[in-house]
Automatic annotation (TrEMBL), chain A:
Protein's UniProt name: NADH-quinone oxidoreductase subunit E
Record note on cofactor: Binds 1 [2Fe-2S] cluster.
Keyword Iron annotated: yes
Record organism: Methylotuvimicrobium buryatense
Residues reported in the UniProt entry to bind [2Fe-2S] cluster: C81, C86, C122, C126
Cofactor: [2Fe-2S] cluster
InterPro entries: NADP_DH_HndA-like, NuoE-like, NuoE_N, Thioredoxin-like_sf
GO molecular function per UniProt: 2 iron, 2 sulfur cluster binding; metal ion binding; oxidoreductase activity
Keyword annotations: 2Fe-2S, Iron, Iron-sulfur, Metal-binding
Pfam families named among the record's database cross-references: 2Fe-2S_thioredx
Automatic annotation (TrEMBL), chain B:
Keywords: 4Fe-4S, Iron, Iron-sulfur, Metal-binding
The protein's name: NADH-quinone oxidoreductase subunit F
Cofactor(s) for this UniProt protein: [4Fe-4S] cluster; FMN
A Pfam family of this chain: NADH_4Fe-4S
Gene3D superfamilies, sorted: 3.10.20.600, 6.10.250.1450, NADH-ubiquinone oxidoreductase 51kDa subunit, NADH-ubiquinone oxidoreductase 51kDa subunit, iron-sulphur binding domain
Keyword Iron-sulfur: yes
SUPFAM superfamilies attached to this UniProt entry: Nqo1 FMN-binding domain-like (SSF142019), Nqo1 middle domain-like (SSF142984), Nqo1C-terminal domain-like (SSF140490), Thioredoxin-like (SSF52833)
Domain NADH-ubiquinone oxidoreductase 51kDa subunit iron-sulphur binding: 426-471
4Fe-4S as UniProt keyword: yes
InterPro entries: NADH-UbQ_OxRdtase_51kDa_CS (IPR001949), Nuo51_FMN-bd (IPR011538), Nuo51_FMN-bd_sf (IPR037225), Nuop51_4Fe4S-bd (IPR019575), Nuop51_4Fe4S-bd_sf (IPR037207), Thioredoxin-like_sf (IPR036249)
Family to which this protein belongs: Belongs to the complex I 51 kDa subunit family.
Species in which this protein is naturally found: Methylotuvimicrobium buryatense
Length: 158, 517
């Protein structure tokens, strides 16, 4: 209950702070996802009424963009590159290994809630493929072994 | 005496451990009581050497790379702070052929300077273009850009001067400059390197664009996958405001230009300029019908310049040295230089800025030194996920927009992704259709439905089912996509698909007898 209330007030605060910007919806959604990790369903009516949009419009925007999520992510989200340069350097094998190691598929979260896995189509790190990103941390020339050590290290941190 | 040590802050270098190396060098220097000044520069673009540590010596900047944590104390033991000999030493950076033989105009400062230092920017010829532009009329600025022959580097290669001229001549109270920093093409990273390695050059280019056409508001539409570029841009923008290079009264001229970064949200289609503007307006990124052209009715219905990062970042040197200077580089109707990105399975991946005209073969073997795996190169994809796959027999094509168009290929944003002989081209074709299906904005049927159908057909082909029916079906589908799509996502997905099929039929199970029959 209290959690919902504070979530709602965060959403309201963010929306009110940004709603006067031209084209405010994306900046608002970014700030909400940054603060809460995702965009909860009950934030939609708040955003809609503040911006004088319909709920369907707001929802339509959220669902259009791959980056916005409507469910809570794990503590850390792994963005693994699936695009051509990384494929040329063995990302498909790495992808199999990552899924096996975490026992999850894309768009899923490990049962302990530590990691979510999302595909990404190029990270601009094609000069050191295959690559991945976790939060603001970037990793290049990722091998099965280096992936395991990154995960073990980050698991210890989380 | 204080020694200056450079460790790149480019995310390509960070991905290989540059952050750890910088911290370790700092710590080791303190431990040994040595006085160093650590500068976090951009990357030189020679990624096989990253993390590349440079030391300022009387003989110039000496490089060591690729440096790992375990090498640090050895480097100090070898007196690398005085350019000492070490197994990782690569000598004076400026003498490395890969770097020395480039023609760096747009990338002139990248790797040399501290990207977020305005003092560095000014010391290395920064804001000279703006200074000239402030003394010119809008029409004169546009004329320099037209004279330079610059064509958009985002993919479509449209002449930048013509676009600017349209906006200049469309009267409106409000006009906009948008920088397209969505850089969604796989195999490309030149925009990212500019934004992280020299953000002021983009700010300067956008400011000049604003002065040229009378626009007072700029937006950089940046993909969310680039957090390091985001930070660098925001830091540089804040410094530009503080020093009077942005805001209400640019360098005392009374002219105004405001600039803000807006983040995308992981949609490839938002790199298409009309989808991008929808997104900036806070909507779903559905592609708009053209006309009206964005130059006449763009963002919020106002005249708008949309240009790629590299296009805009090339403007300051054009205004500094004049349109003719830039125009003297290149071949045919492809003028100036192109920052080429060598990616994928290549021994020396990186950024190579050169005048148009070099052949693919020279790039792949003289710069790239062949595949990383040591196996033969089978195919390269040029121009991102919508670009054609080229076989060895086409490697003598020069990098030139028209020469590529003549072989049904595109230069695009200048990314070259290399594949060795283990690649299965039917699988790459399947992936192209899958990518189109994932990223389609959904506005037109051929793209929305055709891409999913296309992937199914290629899967059948890969499984060897009914080739005599499925191959013509795939060609038909590609025809529909080519002719019936509103934008190039649907309209160009046939480039990688058909080029894979035409150049590598054996990967689709087509034997010589079958295709002869
Ligand atoms: C599907 C699609 C994706 C695109 N992605 C980008 C992009 O990421 N960056 C870019 O500058 N242009 C991209 N473009 C091209 C833009 O529509 C537009 O032509 C360009 O931004 C104009 O700038 P320029 O003239 O400086 O190249 C894309 C086009 C399409 C059809
Ligand atoms: S071709 Fe595809 S991405 Fe382009 S407008 Fe049509 S549906 Fe949208
Ligand atoms: S293709 Fe993976 S980082 Fe560019």
């Amino acid at each position: 209950m209290t959690e919902t209330v504070s979530t709602q007030s965060t959403v309201k605060e963010i929306t009110r702070a940004l709603k006067h910007k031209p084209g405010a919806l994306l900046p608002i959604l970014h700030d909400i996802q940054h603060a809460l990790g995702y965009i909860p369903a009950d934030s939609i009516p708040v955003i809609a009424s503040e911006l004088q949009l319909s709920r369907a419009e707001v929802h339509g925007v959220i669902s259009f963009y791959h980056y916005f999520r409507e469910t809570p992510p794990g503590k850390q989200t792994i963005h693994l590159c699936r695009a051509e340069s990384c494929q040329a350097m063995g990302s498909k094998k790495l992808e199999e290994h990552v899924k096996a190691k975490l026992s999850i598929d894309y768009h899923e979260t490990t049962p302990d809630g530590k990691f979510s896995l999302e595909p990404v189509y190029c990270l601009g790190m094609c000069s050191c493929s295959p690559s991945m990103q976790i939060g603001n941390d970037v990793y290049g020339r990722v091998s099965n072994e280096s992936f395991d050590s990154v995960i073990d290290e980050r698991e210890a941190l989380s | 005496m204080t020694v200056t040590v450079y460790v790149p802050n480019d995310s390509g270098a960070l991905a290989l451990g540059a952050g750890r190396i910088a911290a370790a060098i700092d710590k080791e220097a303190q431990k040994r009581g040595l006085d160093i000044k650590l500068v976090r520069n951009g990357s030189r673009g020679m990624f096989w050497l990253e993390p590349l540590v440079e030391v300022e010596t009387s003989e110039g900047r000496i490089g060591y790379g690729p440096v790992q944590s375990k090498d640090i104390s050895g480097l100090f033991d070898a007196d690398f702070l005085n350019g000492g000999t070490h197994a990782l030493e690569v000598g004076p950076i400026d003498e490395i052929p890969y770097f020395k033989n480039q023609q760096r105009l747009t990338f002139a400062r990248i790797g040399l300077t501290d990207p977020i230092s305005l003092d560095d920017y000014l010391a290395y010829d920064g804001y000279r273009g703006l200074k000239n532009a402030l003394a010119m009329s809008g029409a004169d600025i546009v004329r320099h850009v037209t004279d330079s022959g610059l064509r958009g580097r985002g993919g479509a290669a449209f002449p930048t001067g013509i676009k600017w001229n349209t906006v200049l001549n469309t009267p409106s109270e409000q006009k906009y400059i948008i920088c397209n920093a969505d850089e969604g093409d796989s195999g490309t990273f030149s925009d990212r390197m500019v934004m992280e390695g020299d953000p002021f050059v983009l700010i300067e280019g956008m400011t000049i664009a604003g002065l040229a056409v009378g626009a007072t508001q700029g937006y950089i539409y940046l993909r969310v996958e680039y957090p390091h570029a985001h930070r660098a841009l925001n830091t540089a923008i804040a410094k530009a405001y503080a020093a009077g290079y942005l805001g209400d009264n640019i360098q005392g001229s009374g002219k105004k230009f405001d600039l803000e970064v807006r983040l995308g949200a992981g949609a490839y289609i938002c790199g298409e300029e009309t989808s991008l503007m929808e997104s900036l307006e806070g909507k779903r990124g559905l592609v708009r019908f053209k006309p009206p052209l964005p130059a006449i009715s763009g963002l919020f219905g106002k005249p708008t310049i949309v240009n790629n990062v590299i296009s805009l970042a090339s403007v300051p040197i054009i205004l500094d040295k004049g349109g003719e200077y830039y125009r003297d580089f290149g071949m045919g109707r492809s003028r100036g230089t192109l920052p080429i990105q060598l990616a994928g399975n290549i021994k020396y991946p990186g950024l190579v800025e050169l005048a148009f005209g070099l052949t693919l073969r020279e790039l792949l073997y003289e710069y790239g030194r062949g595949s990383a795996s040591g196996r033969p190169i089978k195919a390269v994809q040029v121009g991102g996920p919508l670009g054609a796959y080229l076989p060895e027999s086409q490697f003598d094509t020069p990098l030139d927009y028209e020469a590529f168009a003549a072989i049904w290929a595109v230069v695009g944003h200048g990314g070259i992704v290399v594949f060795d002989d283990t690649v299965d081209m039917a699988e790459m074709a399947r992936y192209s259709m899958e990518f189109c299906a994932i990223e389609s904005c959904g506005k037109c049927t051929p793209c929305r439905i055709g891409s999913t159908r296309g992937e199914e057909v290629i899967k059948d082909i890969i499984a060897g089912r009914d080739l005599h029916k499925n191959i013509p079906l795939l060609r038909d589908l590609c025809d529909t996509l080519l002719n019936g799509s509103l934008c190039a996502l649907g309209g160009m997905t046939p480039y990688p698909v058909l080029s894979a099929l035409n150049h590598f039929p054996e990967d689709f199970g087509i034997t010589e007898q079958a295709s002869a029959a």
